[in-house]
Structure formats: structure tokens, C-alpha cells
Design a protein that fits this description.
alpha/beta, 3 domains, 12 helices
């Protein structure tokens, strides 16, 4: 069987390809990217690379659908959050290669933060307080684009001056919610029609940027309340596919749902390293590479920048954790094990 993964300069795509190559050696792994440097710099864990050119989102969909038809791709695994909605909206263009994912309207119920939080609240899931407008919001609060993933476009107001500055900004299609102080944690799943088939819980040990950024260092964490919240929401939506539920674990022991990413997520390597095979429902049982030891995964070189800024802020716990776990740390993409893949992750930030 042939599988297509992309964009391959994304560290998430590299992690997926490495896992598939090691656990399913009979798969023929194709990868694509629209970054020009990817022709020369891409991970070694693929069999064939395709450079994709496009001028708009419709061209992007057409180019990939032609690629899938030409090479008779069995499963298409996109990881770029900016295009998932377009791909699912045009799901019929990709034959059966996206049959392991749910429908576009189901995706929106999880992806759109306003729809998700309204649904979660109706199901009794603990969520932050939601304000009807920025004027009504009480500091500290967070302004989030309702339809962007991860930390993109997120703005914080910790003081009245912060709020005044945001009031002068153009914040269309934003939601405003209580800032929840606590440790970031998450539950990552593959589900079928709302039933969880594979799952893994983690907590954040470091972020970049260091305040409200993406996870760059993680370890294992479980709380049954995360499972309960995910089961209620997935059951109501009947979602099929990947999803990562983001929570905050507060000092008074609340587990508060922040958002859901119904796609391949940034910390996927954490569960894969611990032996959780999210891809088993797609490809069957792979090689048994389960790891009973606790593993901490990290994104390099972003983690090193993160630790530097934590030190500047006088926060030393993340760097102490990194050295305390030195024997259990595993990079998402290794400089020495996959040098061209590692460079592609860096180039992705700066080059076309």
C-alpha cells in the first residue's frame, strides 16, 4: 500500500513517517511539500518526494488529488493545520484516501472554538468562563481566533493596559475567555464514530513561546476527567479520526478544557514513543515496539530557545526537569539520526 504524508518539512510529518517506516516496512511512503528547499532537504524516512506548486487553496486541493490518483495512494495523512478544513470540505476529491477521517461539519464542531465550548458546556465539561465581548471581559483573559489552531493569533490581557491595547486592535472572529492558570495537559486519541480506540495522556514541561506557546517538552500524565470529557464530546459529534484535547490542570485540581485539535497534533511523538500506535486502526497491528519506561519527548532546537527564555524569566523548573530526565529524553527529530530532516524543520521557519 502507498501512503502520502505532508507537508514533510513539518516535524509532525517527519515523526509520522519515521514511525510508519519502522513499524510498517511494507508501506511505500510518499511525501510532499510546497517549500522549494524540500527537494534537497527532507527526512530519510520516506520512499518518494513530490514537490507541489499551487497559487491558492483550490489549486492545493487539485494538485494533491491528482497526485493521489496518479500514484494510487491508499491513505493520505495531511498534517498542516491550515489546510485540513479545505481538504475535508473537498473530501470527495480524494477517493478513499481520507475515509479514516470524519466529515467536514463534524470537524468544524471540534475545530471552531465557539462551537466546541458551547457543546462542551452543554455536556457538563468544565470550560473557562466565556465573555460575550472584549468590553465585558475581566482581566486576566485570553482572546483566541475561533478558527485557528494551537497558539496562532492568541492574545493575552493580564492588566487593564493590556485590555486597552486589545480594544484598539481589530479582533474579528475572536472569542474571549477567562485565563486559566495551571499546568498544560492533554489527551490524544484516534476515534471511530465517537468511540476512542487509541489514547494517551501527557502534560507540558515547557512551551515556546514560554507563555501560552506550543508544547516543546512533554511527559506522561493521566487523569480520568480528561477521558470523560473526551468521551462525551466525541460521542456527541461522532468524530472519526485523530484529535488532541487540550486542558489546564489548576492548583485547585480542576481539569479545564481549552480546545480540541481534530488532526495530527504537535506532541504525537510522546504517545508513539511510549508504544501507543494511533495508526493501528488504519494499517493493522505493526511491529511491537512498546516502551514501558517513561519517556519525555521534545522539539529541537525550539526547546533550547525555550529553556533560555525560561531562565531569563527566573523560571528554572523546566531546565531542571530536562537535566533530571536526561536519560529518558527523546527528540522529535534528531540532528544525527536524520540530519536533512532536522535541517528542514529549521528551514521551514525561514525559507520558501
Amino acid at each position: 500500500m502507498r501512503v502520502l504524508v505532508g507537508e514533510i518539512s513539518s516535524y509532525k510529518a517527519i515523526v509520522v513517517c519515521r514511525f510508519l517506516k519502522k513499524n510498517y516496512p511494507d508501506l511505500e511512503i510518499h511525501a510532499y511539500d510546497y517549500k522549494r528547499f524540500s527537494n534537497s532537504f527532507h527526512t530519510r524516512f520516506i520512499d518518494k518526494f513530490h514537490y507541489v506548486q499551487f497559487t491558492n487553496r483550490n489549486d492545493y486541493v487539485k494538485s494533491l488529488s491528482k497526485l493521489i490518483e496518479k500514484y494510487e495512494i491508499g491513505n493520505f495523512i495531511p498534517v498542516h493545520s491550515d489546510f485540513i478544513e479545505n481538504l475535508l470540505y473537498n473530501k470527495q476529491c480524494f477517493g478513499n484516501s481520507l475515509s479514516y477521517l470524519g466529515a467536514h461539519d463534524e470537524y468544524l464542531k471540534l475545530h471552531k472554538k465557539d462551537q466546541l465550548l458551547a457543546l462542551a458546556s452543554s455536556l457538563g465539561v468544565d470550560i473557562p468562563k466565556i465573555y460575550n465581548s472584549i468590553e465585558e471581559a475581566v482581566c486576566p483573559f485570553v482572546a483566541k481566533p475561533s478558527d485557528l489552531s494551537s497558539s496562532k493569533g492568541v492574545k493575552y490581557a493580564f492588566t487593564q493596559n493590556d485590555k486597552e491595547r486589545l480594544l484598539k486592535s481589530k479582533l474579528d472572529n475572536y472569542i474571549f475567555q477567562e485565563y486559566v492558570k495551571g499546568s498544560g495537559c492533554g489527551l490524544s486519541v484516534y476515534a471511530s464514530y465517537g468511540s476512542i480506540l487509541k489514547q494517551y495522556g501527557h502534560k507540558r514541561l515547557a512551551e515556546y513561546p514560554v507563555s501560552g506557546g506550543s508544547s516543546v517538552y512533554r511527559t506522561i500524565f493521566y487523569d480520568t476527567r480528561m477521558n470523560e470529557a473526551a468521551e462525551r464530546i466525541l460521542g456527541a459529534v461522532r468524530w472519526t479520526g485523530f484529535a488532541m484535547f487540550e486542558f489546564k490542570h489548576t492548583s485547585d485540581n480542576r481539569i479545564v478544557l481549552l480546545e480540541v485539535n481534530p488532526r495530527i497534533w504537535g506532541s504525537i511523538n510522546q504517545g508513539l514513543q511510549q508504544g501507543v500506535n494511533y495508526f493501528e486502526p488504519l494499517f493493522g497491528v505493526g511491529k511491537d515496539e512498546s516502551n514501558d519506561k517513561q519517556v519525555c519527548t521534545y522539539l529541537s532546537p525550539q526547546l533550547y530557545l525555550s529553556l533560555f527564555f525560561y531562565i531569563l524569566k527566573g523560571q528554572f523548573i523546566p531546565i531542571l526537569n530536562f537535566f533530571r530526565n536526561i536519560g529518558y529524553n527523546r527528540a522529535d527529530v534528531g540532528l544525527f539520526s536524520d540530519p536533512r530532516g532536522y535541517l528542514s524543520v529549521i528551514f521551514r521557519k525561514f525559507l520558501k
